C-alpha cells in the first residue's frame, strides 16, 4: 500500500515570505510526483509535476525531489494571499498502474497580509 | 488546455434514486477516474477506466458502478442513492505523463 504523508497544517506565513510544503512517501518504486492546489469548494488544480531528482522551477513555485530520502517538497516564493489553499501531494507508482495516483491528505496554507 | 467537464455542479437526489454523473474530457486521454472527497478523508478512488469498456475498482467501489462506452466519456452510477453518498464527486483524466486533470466537481446531496 503506497502511503503519502503530509503535515495537515495549517501552515501560516506572512505575505512575501517563502512557504515550504513537504511530503514523504513510502513506495520506493514511485516515479512521478505531483503537486495540486485546491481552493475551498473547488477541484484540485495541477501546479507542478516532477519526475527526476533535483529542483524544478516554474514561476514562483519550485518542486524538489529526493528519491533516496523519499520526500518531495514545494516552495512558494513571494507568497500571496491568493496562494491560500490546500496543497495536495500525489505520486504515481509506475508499472501497470494506469496512471493511478496516491494522494496525501493535504496541507492547508494560509498567507496573511 | 485539457478540459474535463462534469454534467452538474450541484445535484440533490432522494434516497433510493438512481443517479448518473457524467464526465467528458477532450484530450483523447486513455485513463479516466472517479473520486469522492469528504472532509477529513481526502480523495478516495471509486473506479477508474483505462480504455473503452474497461474498468477497474478503486478503493471504495461499493454502491457504485461505471460505464465507458466512448473514450471521452466516463459515467458514474449510484444504483440506489443513500445519504452516506452525499459528497463531492470528482472526475479526472490522464495522458501518458500521468498528470491528472480534474473536472470542476459535482456536489451531490442525498436526502
As a percent range, the share of helical residues of chain B equals under 10%
Please mark out the parts of chain A with pLDDT under 50 across 5 or more consecutive residues, or reply none.
none
Give the helix/strand class of chain A. Answer: mainly beta
Largest sheet of chain B: 7 strands, mixed
Helix content of chain A: under 10%
Number of distinct beta strands of chain A: 11
Average residue-wise pLDDT of chain B:
95
Q: What gap, in angstroms, lies between the N and C termini of chain B?
A: 37 Å
Explain what this protein looks like in three dimensions.
- The complex is a heterodimer of chains A (113) and B (111).
- With 113 residues, chain A is an all-beta fold.
- In chain A, 0% of the residues lie in helices and 54% in strands.
- Chain A is built from no helices and eleven strands.
- In chain A, the strands form two sheets. In chain A, strands 2, 4, 5, 9, 10 and 11 form a six-stranded mixed beta sheet that branches. In chain A, strands 1-3-8-7-6 form a five-stranded antiparallel beta sheet, with no helix packed on it.
- The radius of gyration of chain A is 14 Å and the shape is globular.
- Chain A starts with a strand and ends with a strand.
- With 111 residues, chain B is mainly β.
- In chain B, 0% of the residues lie in helices and 59% in strands.
- In chain B, strands 2, 4, 5, 6, 9, 10 and 11 form a seven-stranded mixed beta sheet that branches.
- In chain B, a hairpin with a 3-residue loop joins strand 4 (31-38) and strand 5.
- The termini of chain B are far apart.
- The chains are: A mainly beta (113), B mainly beta (111).
- Chain A binds chain B through residues 32, 34, 42-46, 49, 88, 90, 92, 98-101, 103-106, and chain B through 30-31, 33, 42-43, 45, 48, 50, 56, 58, 90, 94, 97-105.
